[in-house]
Amino acid sequence: MREPADPARDDLARDGLELGDDLRSFVDASPSPSHAVAEIVRRLTAAGFGALDETDAWSLAPGDTRYVVRDSSSVIAFRIGTAPPAEAGLRLVGAHTDSPTFKVRPRWDLRRYGYRLVGVEPYGGLLAHTWLDRELTVAGRLVVRGGGQHLAVLPGGPLRLPSLAIHLDRSIRDGLVLDPQRQLVPLWGPDLETGPGLLQALADAAGVVAGDIVGHDLVLADTQPAARTGADGTWIAAPRLDDLGCCHSGTLALLRAAGAAHTQVLVANDHEEVGSGSAQGARGSFLADVLARLVAATGEVNVQALHRTIARSRLVSADMAHAVHPNFADRHDPSHAPAMGGGPVLKHNANQSYATDAVTGGWFTERCADAGVPVQHFVSRADLPCGSTIGPLTASRLGIATVDVGAPMLAMHSCREVASALDVPLMVRALTACLEE
Q: Residue 78: what are its φ and ψ, rounded to 5°?
């Protein structure tokens, strides 16, 4: 017997498929952190946001919409409120642009047994075996003489990490262990004297002269486009959903939020997957620098104004969350098992791996209730370690009240992850409500 129609779920499914397709486009356009920032900036610019440069003096007025990029891979965007920040505070959404991958080494060109390979090293806590036997490419930024920067991505899928045949090592069936130095080196092609090298191919793709390249920041990327999956097509299979999923939702939330007395901010940091220890990471000064300048350019110019602003502010740290895995349900606390499609996940950890506390968790729950969005909860099993996010780092550095949340997903840190399109509109609504309050 067919279940009766549920108009609310039908609307959610329709919105989810539409926004899910938009998320897929966002991920496909973002094979590297620098590409992700470029895609965020493209969307901001289309909505009328103007660029700021950290080397310039800033002049800001109520209603202004601006963004600033640091080192190509982190971006902060904001809408100035109608009241001075020291009087109304800030509402912030934070996410990160990087994902586990492999980074190309400075001296990448390797030759072995008639093959030409690309020297790489693992970046972040990737599930290495999921990168095997996939068509891979190289993407990122090239720095040329004089300091110019160009984004590049190799067309097609020219790189590959082939598995070893089981006939040559039958112990693989008992568990695959890969040595990243020797066994996770992608093949580029046959070792021929002719034919372009990697940097020449990237230079051609970027339209620059190979001899002018003086530096690069390049990663491997899966070339298979993000796709709909699942019996009803409402799941999204894609690389880099952690954390491009929340970068996408945060960007849409800022663009959709109605202006308010308080100033609304989106920050997307690089290097979260490796500890955030960089000038543009959450441990660095980027957010603190921008907020100090924003306060000085829009309100009181005194030593107390920034502290008063921070005391009136809230940060939502948005990073993807662990949905319960039906084949490994014992890895979850049985009372905290989020489901894909069930809405945003509120993350808790007694040892401060997440920044959520009673006040910020309650504040987020109220905002979700205002938006008609359900809330799920995640707590790690007491006998398992807990991951972390930019939330505790930013809260510690700035002293800002922070809540950690995320959209539920499976296969986190795989080369190809899975999330539900139904969670995209729910997350956008929740983040929009937090920015608007």
A: -155, 155
